[in-house]
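Appendix B, Record 12. Input sequence as logged:
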Amino acid sequence: MEKANLFINGEACSVANTFAVVNPATAGIFAEAPACDESHVNRAIEGAAAAFNHWRLDILQRRNALNKMAEAIRENSEAIALLLTQEQGKPLKQARSEVMTSVMQIQLAASTEMPQEVLQDNDQSLIKIIRKPYGVVAAIVPWNYPVSIAMGKVATALIAGNTVVLKPSPYTPMATLKIAEVTQGIFPAGVFNTLSGLDFLGVQLTQHALVRKIDFTGSVNTGKKVAAAAAPDLKRITLELGGNDPAIILPDANPGKIAKALFWGAFTNSGQVCVAIKRVYVHESIQAALLQELAALANSTPVGNGLDDNTRLGPINNKAQFDRVNSLVSAAKQHGARVVAGGSALNQGYCFQPTILSDLRDDEAVVAQEQFGPVLPVLSYRDVDDAINRANASHFGLGSSVWSENTEHATVIAEQLEAGTTWVNQHLALSPIAPFGGAKWSGLGAINGKWGLEGATQMQVINVKRV
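Logged structural output:
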């Protein structure tokens, strides 16, 4: 059985207590992860605070260390990917891709310049804005993309001069702990710490007086708790929260042409993507044709263990989420929804058939809530203004998309949607050169590029009177 250590102040730390990590493809335990206690949390945060004053000074040191980190992950990518598939469920090919994406994220961060802006420069004065690190950053990571999300947070915080305490989800700690293992010795003691544990760990990180910034990705409800915990100490926060992304299909769209992109925009990682398509609004004139295309894709996509070469969709990650998805689909069926494809669990771990539903009301839970699973409700509309209003009638505002043969008209529609990102004729097309964040309940702040770096730093105005 796989085992791992905590990594605090540059050292591997074994602990007495562990917790089980379940392989969702089998529903069986495949690993034991270390369960830290309060003393481990305090040591990690205090070590990070002590390392900060030196780490912040030398950006060349930070660049070199991050590039070495990227290389260590690349050299151990297969072992990391294998752990990732077993704890998260995604097909091994996708796990490998996620690991290599994290390598590129780290390398990109290492090459980023610190923002600086000169407002005035003349014989009398110099006024400029510089960016400075906060100090200790607590990075709290979800279970759907545990490696790439973690490394994006870590690399951005570290290049900015912060030190980091990283907390992976208790559902998916093993790949992250493996990364901490293979990168030991690259960073000075205290710069990069990795802890694993159960619910109390997140609470301690968000409340600790020495943590100055919290970078959290997860559910809206937990994000609100993080914000509330940060408020008494005015800790800075970046929150990337849930989404209930609408896709609006205009009447001139070609169902046969767009169905595959729509399907994978919704079902990648078995729908466990915060910015996946979660509801489709299609013009009534082409709804039947689109449903037929989507059903054919759903019925022909193999679901199973991510270690099997044939698998295209893995299981839902954990039993709580599996039960929730099952409940949402069951309730929709009881309320009259038509199952166009799928509609039930498979007799294998937490695997669930890719499910297409129609004949739904907007207030049905499977439409109004974020399913975060392999389920796609497809609703019809007659008037495009009605579709826009229904798409916007949500507390969520992470992503959205518009699909049409007329890209100019689709772009006009896209600009009316309330979302951090809106795509035209594509979805999940995240770009490292564009900021990514949410509107409304879907988050605060942004990641990627200068926007992510600004979020990892605080602004200081330097105003010099020349003599």
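The two ends are 69 Å apart (CA to CA).
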